[in-house]
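User: My collaborator sent over this chain with a note saying "see what the structure looks like." That's all I know about it. Can you take a look?
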Amino acid sequence: MAVLLAAVQALPGPHQEVLTLWAWEGLSYEEIAVALGVEVGTVRSRRHRARAGLRAVEGTATGPGASPPEPPDRAAPAMPPGAEQGGPT
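Assistant: Without extra context I'll predict from the sequence alone. Here is the result:
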């Protein structure tokens, strides 16, 4: 945990802000954009770059150059149950 915390602290300040608001506070991209006074695209870019910086931490990648699956955008509407398996529409 100490290694991960040090890696987060080594990120540029704007990337730390977005990562903190997204991962620990659970804010959506839109909420982060409003809180920081930036565009949603900027939030997405900063989060992506922050996560890329953390992949260098030993033990966080699942294979060579691999990254964990992207979580769904918290602002995206949920799919109805069964929709993913080709259930009734």
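A starting point for your reply to your collaborator: Residues 39 and 80 are 29 Å apart (CA to CA).
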